[in-house]
Amino acid sequence: KRTLGKNNELINYLNSNVTENANFSAIALANIGDTSVLNDLYTKLLNVDSYVPHNSAFGLGESGTITAADFLLLALNNNINKNDKLTQELVCELINNLGRTGNEKHLKELLKIKTNDDIVTPYIALAIVRFEMRKYKDESSFQYLSNLMQQANSEALNKYAAYCFNRTGDKQSLVPYKEILLNLAESFNPSTRMWSISAIGKLQDTAN
């Protein structure tokens, strides 16, 4: 039987200043797979005064369970749009792991988040891509990304949005975003250009 170790050593290792030790602890805790352990990881997300919550978010992402995704979403909603650096970084970690762990319900909730934070918005776009890679899609994703790009000024956001547009196999879903794709195709970032041009190609519009 897997345990937390003597005196809950695995939980305590989340406090380690050595990133590798903290990450190994988070992975080990996630692999135990016990609901009470996931609850312990969530509890560590409640006080953002160190990098312990970041390690806990990583552990929840590693567990790959719906319970963990629920905890990630709850913590995300509690911390979004807070301006201090530690919390901002935690929000990015939460979004990143939600994209790796959540299902269509979590994607729908992610698309309700309102922010124009240039640090956070690229992580939202990347999470949408990760949901898509795991076959979870929402028809409002493109409109949401379009709105984000109008509100935030981030080349990283543009890059992941272009990648997201390019992954679709549905030509019709791209039609309303043709102008956005044409603008992205003029980006100085080679990845943004490549993915947007590829998406434009799916429109089969010889005029462009």
Describe the structure.
The chain is an all-alpha fold. It has helices at residues 9-13, 19-32, 35-43, 52-63, 66-79, 85-101, 104-110, 121-133, 141-151, 155-167, 171-174, 178-184, 190-202. The termini are far apart. The model has no long low-confidence stretch (mean pLDDT 86).
What's this entry about, in short?
The protein is mainly α and 208 residues long.
**Parts with pLDDT < 50 across at least 5 consecutive residues:** none
Q: What average pLDDT do the residues reach? A: 86
**Helix amount, in percent?**
55-70%
Order of helices and strands: HHHHHHHHHHHHH
**DSSP summary, beta strand count:** 0
Largest sheet: none
Bin the strand percentage. under 5%
What is the radius of gyration computed over CA atoms, rounded to a whole number of angstroms?
19 Å
DSSP helical segment count: 13
Shape: elongated
Terminal-residue CA separation: 61 Å
Structural class: mainly alpha
Summarize this structure as a short list of keywords or feature phrases:
single chain; 208 residues; mainly alpha; 67% helix; 0% strand
Please give the structural blueprint.
Elements: H1 9-13, H2 19-32, H3 35-43, H4 52-63, H5 66-79, H6 85-101, H7 104-110, H8 121-133, H9 141-151, H10 155-167, H11 171-174, H12 178-184, H13 190-202
Helix pairs in contact: 2-4, 3-5, 4-5, 4-6, 5-6, 6-8, 8-10, 9-10, 10-13, 12-13
